[in-house]
Amino acid sequence: MKKILTMTFFSILCAGMLSGCGTDYDTADSTVFAFKDGSIVSTDVEKFDTGTYDKDDLEKYVNSEIDSYNKSDDGDVKLKSLDVEDGKAHLTVSYGSSKEYSAFNGTDMFCGTIAEALAAGYDFDAEFASIEGGKAKSCDKKDFIDSEGYKVVIYKGTSNIHVESDILFSSVDNVKLVDDKTVAVGSGYDIFNQSADSTENTEAAEPVSQTESTESTEASGGSVSDDDILNAVTEEQEVTFDFDKDDNEEEASYITYIIFK
Fold this sequence. Notes:
- The protein is of the alpha+beta class and 261 residues long.
- Helices cover 14% and strands 33% of the residues.
- It contains four helices and 15 strands.
- The protein has helices at residues 55-73, 98-105, 114-119, 226-229; strands at 31-34, 40-47, 78-85, 88-95, 109-113, 128-132, 135-139, 151-157, 160-163, 167-171, 173-179, 182-190, 233-234, 239-240, 254-260.
- Strand 6 (128-132) and strand 7 (135-139) form a beta hairpin.
């Protein structure tokens, strides 16, 4: 959904109907949730001027884009919820796989085993840290690259990334630990310096809770992003969703590796 809301608003993640059970997707910051079965769920949070834009029109447009994608690509993208509250829109979308997430959003994401990632051409060319007790310690990729049982999320973009179990290893640059299962990705972050400021996020990242979520909207939707959805013009409905970026917001993306079991 990166082409419909404008490369800045939404970053979406896949999730099957069962894999995300018990996870609260209603987060304060845009977050991509990755599960062991490879499914993804993403929640995108963006300013929404209810005096200018209409939630119902936005919902119709999102559903139209999802339906179009699903029909043309035999997809399994689903709108889980869309809420507007306190001047912000919260859009949660699920995907059957990271491949589907990538195709729908026009960005690069992988979720699978390390062996599968290597076979797909990912070289793990990054500085890594091991994570234990909320603290990062420098390590070499040799500490995990040949081990069985590890899962990896590889994500190109800026967002919070939440995995199903504790993070064991992470790439270092532009990454900040939020909690045992979540990192924030943004310019200026350093996993060894948790006080580092970021120009990518205007609000502090908050831990993701593991309580049951209430989904307000259920639905079933090439390559379109959440950002595109909020910035697109729909000729049929003649509704324009044009969300301006914050002045300090830059279009930047980073390759982030998160290893878990």
